[in-house]
Structure formats: C-alpha cells, structure tokens
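User: structure tokens for this one?
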Amino acid sequence: MNHSIGILKTSTSELENSTQQTSTTIAETTTTAFEISRAMESQANDTEAIVDKFMNVGNKIENVNEMSQSVMLKADEITDAFKNNHEVIDALIAVNGQNEIEVGNISKITVQLAESSSGIHQITGTIAEIANQTKLLALNASIEAARAGEQGRGFAVVASEIRKLAEQTTAQSEDINRIVMQTINHVEQNNRSVQAIEEIAEQHKSSVSQTKETFNFVTENMNEMMSQVQAIATEIQSIERDKDDVIGAAQNLSASGEEVSASVEEVTATMQEQSGMTEHLADMVQRIDGLTKQLAEESSRFKIK
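Assistant:
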C-alpha cells in the first residue's frame, strides 16, 4: 500500500508540475496574444488614419482636378478668342492693303490734277498774252481809224468791239487763272494730306503686322500651355486613380487587421478558458496531493503483523 501511495504521490507531483508548466505557457501565450491583439488594433487604427488622410488628399486632388479642368476651359475660351482676333487682324490687313491701293490711286489722281491745273495755268497765261496783244492791236486800229476820218469810222467801231472783247477775255483769263491757282493750292494741300495718310497707313500697317506677330507668339505659347495643362490633368487623373487603389488597399488591410484582431481575441478567450480549466485542474491536483499525504499519514499508523 505504501508503494501505491508513493506512486500516487509521484504521479500527483508530476501532474502538478505539468499543470504549472501548462498554466505558465497558457499565461505567456495569452499575454502574447493580447499584445498581438493590441498591435493589430493599433495597426487597424493607424490604417484607418492613413485612409482618412488619403481621403483628405483625395479631396484635394479632386479639387485640383476640377481647377485644372476649369483652367482648360478658360484656356479653350482664350484660344478661341485669339483665333477670332486672328481673323479680325487678317481682315484688317486686307482692308489696310485695299486702303493703300485707294490712297495710291488718290495720289495719282492728285498728281494728274496738279499737272492738268498747271497746263490750264499755262493756257490762261497764253490767252492773257493774246488778249493783251489784241487790245494793243485794237488800240492801234482805233488810232488809224481816227486818222482816216469818215472812212475809218466803221473800222473804228470794229476795233472798239475787238478791244472790249480782248478786255473781257483778259478779265475772264484772270478769273480762270485765279481759280486755277486756288485749285493748284487745294491740290497741293490734298497732296500733303495724301502723303500724311500714306505715312499713317504705313505706320498702321507696321502696327498691325507687329500685333499679328504678337498674337502668333501668344497663340503658340497658349497652345504649348494647353498641352502642358492637358498633361497635368492627365497626371492628376492618374494620381486620383492610384489614390483610389491605395485607399482600397488600405481599407482591405484595415479589414484584414480587424479580422486578425478578432481571431486573436477569440484565441485569447479560448486560452483564458483553458487557463481557468488548468487552474481548476491544479486545484484538484493539490487536493489529491493533500489527500495522498493524509492517506500516507493514516496508513503509517497501521502495522501489519
């Protein structure tokens, strides 16, 4: 019997040691699982924070995308306006060219008018000389008619009429010459005005040409800027798609972390339950050990004869 009690004590002692080791292992595992759960929970919180930040970044990217689209619309409007201005400038150049032709024609007509007026002035001068000679001849004829007496009276009347006609011719020649001189003055003024118009037209032509060159330069830069804005808008759209992918991956990671955390919590609960059972088993082993000691003490009182 003592042998059996010894074996029972040994088994109980080994079971108690094993139970203590198991309890220690369960405690360590529970602690580790709890730390893992806390780490996974922290990771899930960090992931959610990252998702929130990416959402904010995504909103800003969307705002930038909207602004880039607005810039593109404005750039399109400016480009259309420049195209319309190009058409206006081309029409202005065409009108300016037509004006140059008309001003040239006016200049030619003015020169021809000046030449004609000069010719008329020469003719009126010749007429005035002829009229003066005619008056002189009429005067001589009147003198000769007076000398002839009654025989020269008819010739004197003719000479008088010729003199009157010569005087009228002289007066009309002077009037014509005065009008021609006024016309020549007007032609000279008109010629100066035409020259001023030609200079203004040339300056206008130069200004229009410079304006067209400026518009061409601005249009080229606008086209280049449009290409750059389009490239930026494309990159922003690509970044927005990448942002959505990153947010999706982060949300999946957060969900996976929450699942792992839940699984770890389940394992922790199970380990805690096992720890309770182990502690209960340890209590039972201690009770058995105590009973074994009592049994050994009681059995030592008996002596077999």
